[in-house]
Amino acid sequence: MRRGLVIGNWKMNINWHSAIALVDGIVADMPAVNADLVVCPPYLYIPEVSARITDTRLICGSQNIAAHAEGAYTGEISGSMLREFDCKYAIVGHSEHRKYYADDNVVVAKRYRQAIASGIVPILSTGDSLAQRKQGTTFEVVAKQIEDVIDIAGIDSFHHAVISYEPLWAIGTGRTATGEQAQEVLEFIRRLIDSKSPEIAEKIQILYGGSVKPENAKNLLAMPDIDGVLVGGASLDTDSFLKIYSSFQN
Ligand code: 13P
Fold it and tell me: Does pTM surpass 0.90?
C-alpha cells in the first residue's frame, strides 16, 4: 500500500505575513490523516517555514532546485542549501518553469539528479498541453519527459522520487481532469516504470495536479493509481488545503 501525499505549491503568491499565518494555521489544525502533507513556499520563505514546522508533521519542500551542485549560477539555489533548511522534496520540471524559463527535459533531468545527489526527493512534474491532448500525443509527451530523466539519472533513482502528472490545460484554469482522465495517464506512467522496474512501479507515488479543490479531491484520490495530489491555488487557503488533505479519510 502506497502512502498518500498532498503537496501545496504556493508558486509566487502571498506575502510574508500571509505565509506565516498560512503555515501556522495548517500546523494548528492539521488532522490526523495517514498521509504526508508538504508545503512548497517561495525560496525566500523556506527558512522561516522550516523553523515553524520543526517537530510537527508538516513537511517543507521547494518549488525548484539548481541543476548544479555549486558555483557561478546567479539566482539559483542548490540542493545542499535546501538541505540546510530541512527541505525534503523539490519540484522539478513544473510546466510553468518549462514554459517561462525554457527548461527542457535535459535541464529537468539535471535538476532531478541534483535533488537525488542532495538527498532530496524530486517530484518530477510531467504534463501535456491542450493541443497535445487534442492531437492524441499525451502518452508520447509524458513518456519522453520521464524517459529522458531515466536516461540521465537511471531508473534506480526512482526508488527515491515522486512523479506528478499536471496537465497544462488543468492548471489554474478551474478545469480539472476527471478522475478517469487522470487515472488513464497515471496508469500509463506506472506501466512505463513497470517496464523498467516492477519493484519501483509498485511503490512509487504518482500524483495528479491541476485545479484540485476540496470538491474534487475525493473523487481523484479514489482512483487506483492516484497516490496523492499537487495543489496550487487551493493550497493558499488553510481550510481548503486541509479539506483536501482530509479527503484521504473514509
Ligand atoms: P492549480 O491547483 O492552481 O491549478 O495549480 C496546480 C499546480 O500547478 C500545482 O503544481
Answer: yes
